[in-house]
Amino acid sequence: MGVPALFPAFWAQASSSAAGGGIGLLMILVVFAIFYFLLIMPVQRRQKKVRQMHQALKTGDEVITSGGIRGRIISIKDDSVQLRCAPDQIKLEFVRSAVAQVISGENAGSGRSSGAKP
């Protein structure tokens, strides 16, 4: 007893769908498009905003790191930022990607707030 004898309805459907194989391909493309617009595109937008925030960091910005440490940027190197943290004015150095959010710039009245949202 061969495989076609066990599943005759499947084999009949498979042979008749050979002509309509374009519909199956179309369905796969539709599912891919849905995944792209609902999952991939929002993640890429968020990554772009975070990258822009990291590139726009400047001395005097008050930031929060991904570990929850608040401080004011006192110097910026290629891939690192040095923060001064209150109350003891401790200097800490972090990689630029550790900055999770910018609270304010040099002028606190601007109310600038941007950054990555968890």
Structural description of this entry:
- The structure is a single chain.
- This protein is an alpha+beta fold and about 120 residues long.
- It is about 40% helix and about 25% strand.
- It is built from three helices and six strands, in the order αααββββββ.
- The chain has helices at about 5, 10-15, 20-55; strands at about 60-65, 70-75, 80-85, 90-95, 100-105, 115.
- A six-stranded antiparallel beta sheet has the order 4-3-2-1-5-6, with helices on one face.
- The protein is rod-shaped, with a radius of gyration of 27 Å.
- The chain starts with a helix and ends with a strand.
Index terms:
118 residues; alpha+beta; 6-stranded antiparallel β-sheet; 6 strands; rod-shaped
Write the layout of secondary structure elements.
Elements lengths: L2 H4 L1 H9 L4 H35 L6 E4 L4 E7 L3 E6 L4 E6 L3 E6 L9 E2 L3
Antiparallel strand pairs: 1-2, 1-5, 2-3, 3-4, 5-6
Task: Classify the helix fraction into a percent range.
Answer: 40-55%
> Could you name the ranges where pLDDT drops below 50 across 5 or more consecutive residues?
107-118
Our count of helices gives: 3
Question: SSE string, helix = H, strand = E?
Answer: HHHEEEEEE
